[in-house]
Write a structure and sequence with these properties.
The chain is 68% helix and 3% strand. By secondary structure, the chain is mainly alpha-helical. The protein has a two-stranded antiparallel sheet. Keywords: Membrane, Transmembrane, Transmembrane helix.
């Protein structure tokens, strides 16, 4: 019989099938996420430096380049966004059972993160760039013009969630705000800098400064989500409410 040190326990009662429980240690889970990110960051930098030195045969390292759509970092970002959505859904489920007045707020954030997870791979936000630019002729910092509706949505979202944020304990309120700030700084703020530097797909891919800015942008985005996951895991633990998932 496996011991609890292996985080798995079995219970066998007469006439019943065995019941398995899996225990997740949040600190170990966080380490896996952060170390996975660091490995990707390292390979991304190796790719950028190699290209700068004129080495074109990189034997798959390019799959770790942060600015490629079909890459390991893209799927990693999608996965951690989906993980945040699942954790938020778990919290919402508990809050709903406790008749918490903000359970709907948790559900909306969960749905939002699920949408962001899909968009990370599908790139729906990029579809609106050309129509907006064609209508308003944006350039420079606003060249990636999807940030304009994003900023409008963000302002409405923040105003709508002020009461929700104030309802959280100070530790988690600060964690939510900080992780959100880091994510938005990368996704919108540094994105605008990369828009200013962008020339075209081919030229920009060979521009060292552009590649470093993209690295910073994606780093802030992933860090923001990872910090948010850390905060959510801590919040779930603080609720001291037994949560179980059963498959029948």
């Amino acid at each position: 019989m496996p011991s609890q040190e292996n985080f798995i326990s079995e219970q066998d009662t007469e006439g019943r099938q065995k019941s398995h429980q899996i225990y997740l240690k949040a600190s170990n889970f966080n380490k896996i996420i952060y170390y996975s990110f660091l490995v990707q960051l390292l390979f991304n930098l190796i790719y950028i430096i190699s290209k700068e030195l004129g080495h074109e045969r990189l034997y798959g390292i390019g799959k770790f380049y942060f600015d490629f759509e079909e890459s390991v970092p893209t799927y990693f970002s999608s996965i951690i966004l989906l993980l945040a959505a699942i954790l938020l859904a778990i919290i919402r489920n508990v809050k709903s059972k406790l008749s918490d007045p903000f359970s709907t707020h948790w559900m909306i954030i969960s749905i939002l993160f699920a949408i962001l997870s899909v968009d990370e791979i599908a790139g729906f936000h990029e579809i609106i760039i050309d129509p907006i630019n064609n209508s308003f002729h944006f350039s420079g910092y606003w060249r990636f013009s999807w940030v304009i509706p994003a900023l409008i949505f963000l302002l409405i979202f923040i105003i709508s969630y002020l009461k929700f944020l104030n309802s959280l304990p100070s530790k988690y309120r600060k964690g939510f705000i900080f992780s959100g700030f880091i994510y938005v700084l990368g996704a919108v703020g540094i994105e605008m800098i990369s828009a200013k530097l962008f020339i075209n797909d081919k030229s920009s891919a060979n521009d060292l400064i552009y590649n470093l800015v993209i690295t910073l942008e994606e780093t802030f985005e992933m860090l923001g989500v990872m910090i948010f996951i850390t905060v959510l895991l801590s919040y779930i633990k603080s609720m001291k409410y037994e949560i179980s998932i059963s498959l029948k």
